[in-house]
Amino acid sequence: MSRLLLKGSVLTLQVILLPPLFAQVLETDIKSAKTTKEEGLKRSDLMKPHFANGNQAMLDAKGIRQQLDAAASDQKPALLTKMKADYQTAITEYEQALEETKVRDEDGLHVIGLIGVIRNGLITQQKAVDMLVQDKDLPIILSNLGIAYGGLGEHQEAINMLQQAAILKPAAGTFMELGTDFAQVGKMPEAAAACDKVLTVDPAAKNMQEGCYKNVGIVLTNRGKLVDAIAPLQKATQLNPQDALAWKLLGDGLTNTITSKTEGGKIVYTIPSGTIEAYQRYLLLEPNGSYAEQVRAALEGFAQMMKPASTPAEPKEKN
Question: What angle do CA 313, 315, 319 make, to 5 degrees?
Fold first, then answer.
């Protein structure tokens, strides 16, 4: 196969004359592209305040969520109302930012795609459009919007937004959120698959994958499905052995699989492997934690279960 060689000679400029009509169309489209670029920049400026407002509302909601655990019972209703209002504000702002981004992209795609067709004459306009890179802001806005919907409890809407974000730009945080929302709507295979993809996207994101499995375990625990929560919590503790809450929840799940049977008039308990160890790991990490007393009581109960039952003393013979 012949190759073009670079030579140190004077280059001559070859001029290719375009048909008058073709040249006129190309010039018109280039001008249109420049106009569209300017309009896109303006729309980008319009989008930024909405995006910033949405981010601030999300930070406010996150701050309130952190307060809820330590808040008194009479304070929680007001905090929940404020948190929901912040999430709603975030949704409104992100949707407006999304609208500005969509308009900007549609204008740009139309003109750039048309120029691509004129430039080479080999592909369709749709093909040219498909080859373009999406606006970098779009997946971020979609992902944040999905998180806001999830915070408001609208989990199916959250899934819709997060899936779009993941298609445009796969990100570990997006799949972590997807795993949580899939669990909230009862789609456990999809939840597990989303958690599995976290490390596929970012091999260093072990904490995010652990958080994904832990969230799935929390959702199942809150719904009373403690046994189903065991598998995701086991994965969470393997990924992050320093997560005290994950160990405690795993202990709770395993406790619900304790079985008993009667042998020789005695009740014999079978405590699954790892149950006691899970609670012990919690106490090792948080000896004065919120669940410390509860866990100690459970361990004392296990100790009683494991004691061999005493046999009744035989009656003494009378003289």
Answer: 145
* Integer Cα distance of 40 and 100 in angstroms: 9
Q: How many CB atoms lie within 10 A of CB 24?
A: 11
Residue 285: name the closest of 256, 232, 249 by CA.
Answer: 249
Determine whether 84 is exposed, middle or buried from the number of CB atoms within 10 Å of its CB (0-12, 13-18, 19+): middle
Per the DSSP assignment, residues forming a β-bridge with 260 are: 269
Q: CA 24, 27, 32 angle in degrees (round to 5)?
A: 125
The DSSP bridge partners found for residue 269 are 260
31 contacts 23 by C-beta, under 8 angstroms = no
- Three-point CA angle 97, 98, 102, nearest 5°: 120
Cα-Cα end-to-end distance for the chain:
118
The answer to whether 154 and 160 have CB atoms below 8 angstroms apart is no
Q: Compute the distance between CA of residue 215 and CA of residue 239 in angstroms, rounded to an integer.
A: 14
pTM above 0.85, yes or no: no
Query: Rounded CA gap, 181 and 224, in Å?
Result: 17
Strand, helix or coil for residue 263 = strand
Q: Is the dihedral of CA 246, 248, 251, 256 positive or negative?
A: negative
Residue 66, both tokens: 């952190």
Going from the first residue of the chain to its last (319 residues), give the mean pLDDT of each consecutive group of 10, the final group possibly shorter. 33 36 45 47 63 86 84 88 90 82 51 41 46 62 90 93 85 95 96 96 94 96 95 97 97 95 87 96 96 96 79 49
Q: Domain boundaries in the chain? A: 23-69+76-169
CA distances to 38, 135, 213, 272 from 103, in Å: 13, 11, 37, 58
